[in-house]
Amino acid sequence: MGIKDKLLYGRLYLSGDKITREYWTTDYKEVAPGCFFPMKQGGIIDSTFYDRGKTEKIYNTGSQTDIEITEIRVNEKLPDELFRMDFKEGVKVFDNHFGIKGFTYPYKSNRTEDELNQIQQEAREKAKNDIRARKHKDSFLNKPAPAFPKGAEWLNSRPLTWKDLRGKVVILEFWAEWCGPCKNDLPVMSELHKKREENKIIVIGIHVLGSRPDAIQKVIKEYDIDYPICIDIPVSHPIYGLMSNAYDVGEMPYAYVIDRNGKVAGHGWGVADVIDTAVRLANKPSNQNN
Predict the structure, then answer these.
(1) Least CB-packed of 110, 156, 203, 205 within 10 Å?
(2) H helices within the chain, ranges in order?
């Protein structure tokens, strides 16, 4: 078999048994002496969740990309503008090099050294707060899940209780119709719900405060959401209500896994962080302790 026929195939596991990326390259062409390039490339990306068992069930296919290269130029000078990125003053910058999820600040072209030091200090403080928040959420593990608020409005379902859900593995996700990152999870949650008989996982959305009913219904229709949604009950905060307080949720999306006995079994930033735990628990025989 010649090199042009060879296939490079790979999977990327970011957490445990979860495959988050698949990719392949083939049809290699010698574009310069001794330099071969794959003319066909592809991959499955964006929220693809697998159960790496004997069946390798796909819980959400995400999106697939196939690329066919039609022209390659080698060793040509590239224009400088390809390497220049212009930012507008005040645009929000998502900075990950501090090792903090979701750390943002406004772009400023002539930021002083003191201002940079202030940003670094804010990042360090946020990191400390994130550690404290995670430790507090960890304290919920193996304890009964806080109850759904009495009198809360439910969409796509009658009001539910943990007694109703006894014997089921449940993913709770806190979200809002105006939250951009939350919308990345909505197709995954919908797919899990549609295949609940197969995957044995129940999904429930907890919508925070501050949205008009018609705005919520618009997103429900847009993302074909038919799983149960509980609307949080107001307390003192304009966004995070009684249910959010009970689960110590102050940012979204945030998800919890509840085991068959109604106890908290895991938590993380959205469905991607908890799907492994939910699948593992759902695949356990019901007579085994969680």
Answers:
(1) 110
(2) 113-138, 180-194, 196-199, 213-222, 242-246, 271-283
At what angle are helices 271-283 and 180-194 packed, to 10 degrees?
A: 20
Cα separation, 98 vs 128, whole angstroms: 12
Alpha-carbon span 160 to 228, nearest angstrom? 9
Q: Is the peptide bond before 253 cis (omega within 30 degrees of 0)?
A: yes
Running DSSP on this structure, what letter comes out for residue 232? Answer: P
- The answer to pTM > 0.90 is no
Taking CA atoms, 60 is separated from 44, 57, 131, 219, in Å, by 11, 9, 31, 19
CA distance 15 to 38: 29
C-alpha gyration radius of the chain: 23
pLDDT 10s digits, 92-151? 777 766 666 667 888 888 888 888 888 888 888 877 777 777 777 777 888 999 989 888
Q: Give me the torsion for CA of 174, 103, 93, 177, rounded to 10°.
A: 10
Q: What is the three-class DSSP state of 24?
A: strand
10 Å Cβ neighbour count for 241? 23
Phi and psi for 221 in degrees, rounded to 5? -70, -40
- Tokens 């224009």 -> residue: 79
Reduced to 3 states, what is the DSSP secondary structure of residue 99? Answer: coil
Residue 120 CB partners (closer than 8 Å, separation 6+): 98
3-class DSSP state for residue 125?
helix
